[in-house]
Amino acid sequence: MVWFLLTLAVIVYATRLGLLLSPPEATMGNVARILYYHVPHSMLSLVFPYINFAASLAYLFWRRRDPLKALTADAIAISAAEVTVVYGSICLVTGMLWGRVAWGIWWTWDARLTSMLLLWLLYVSYLMLRKLSSTGQAHTLAAVLSVFAAIDVPIVYMSIRWWRTQHPAPVFGGGPDSGLDPSMKPAFGWNVLAWALWGVFLLTMRYALERRRQQREQDAALQAIEASLEMAQ
Amino acid sequence: MNLSWIFGSSMEARHLLYAYTAVWAIQGGYAGWILYQWLRLGRNSRPGAGAGTHKS
Q1: Structural domain span for residue A92
Q2: ipTM score
Q3: pLDDT in tens, A48-104
Q4: Which residue, among B1, B27, B41, would best test binding to A if mutated, counting the most A CBs under 10 Å from its CB?
Q5: How far apart are the first and last CA of chain A?
Q6: Per the structure, how many domains does chain A have?
Q7: Contact flag B23-A41 (C-beta cutoff 8 Å)
Q8: Rounded Cα gap, residues A129 and A80, in angstroms
Q9: Whether the Cβ atoms of residue A62 and residue A69 lie closer than 8 Å to each other
């Protein structure tokens, strides 16, 4: 609860900085304030896939050696995948809203936008596979899929460095002329912190939910075994 | 502090408002879904069930 309230306070403070206190951007004006939500969500949508990737590898390693540890890894993996889809959705939606104003179009099939859409689709596929597969091997198949999905993350990151794109060149680490104006840095930094804290909060809550669901499944399985033993006696 | 520009009718103002609203809606919706599932799973739990209750 303390974490939730602290996170909410930081989000409100960061939003206030981004929306009200930071100056309008020199060329785009007020609409560039979308940056304070769009860029942190985009950055974090490239971080959570690696949590899913590491947890999926752990699941594949432990699924026969130590099933209890594998269940823990699986709970972390699905939590990270869902948070990736949430952050990726926001990245795409806010990007399109910004692009319509800045470029005059909602969407273009350039390398950055296309690779980001592919990443989002891969994690939606991961969740659909887990939800809809009836093979009994869904968790293993999903873990393998997540290993392949993680390959797209560096492609998304490097796309604006490797190819000429409609999407702007990198703001950070993009060369001597790149970087934010100093007056925009506090709002940007606070928003990155705020949405990172919120992401960790969501991840923790979703993990706890998944563990509770796993416990319920184990309870149901035990009850079924007890019932079958009583019938046999 | 003048906030009227946020609720202006220009495309810039509308899209800025939509973007911020979309973020809160998606994040709040997902957090609400987790809370709903948590409460639903809690309600469906049966006392006495669980590991260690097997009568061997």
Answers
A1: 9-170+181-220
A2: 0.89
A3: 999 999 999 999 999 999 999 999 999 999 999 999 999 999 999 999 999 999 989
A4: B27
A5: 49
A6: 1
A7: yes
A8: 15
A9: yes
- Which of A48, A97, A98, A217 has the highest number of chain B CBs within 10 A, making it the mutation to test binding with B? A97
Instruction: Give the A:B interface size as CB pairs under 8 Å.
Output: 93
Q: Is residue A211 part of a domain?
A: yes
Contact A222 B1 (CB under 8 A): no
- SS3 for B53? coil
Residue type, A62: W
Please state, rounded to an integer, the average pLDDT across all residues of chain A. 91
pLDDT at B52 over 60: no
For the record, the structure tokens of B1 come out as 């502090």
Using DSSP's 3-state secondary structure scheme, residue A159 falls into: helix
pTM: predicted TM-score of the whole model, two decimal places: 0.89
Any domain includes A107: yes
Question: Is residue A232 in a domain?
Answer: no
Does residue A165 sit within a domain? yes
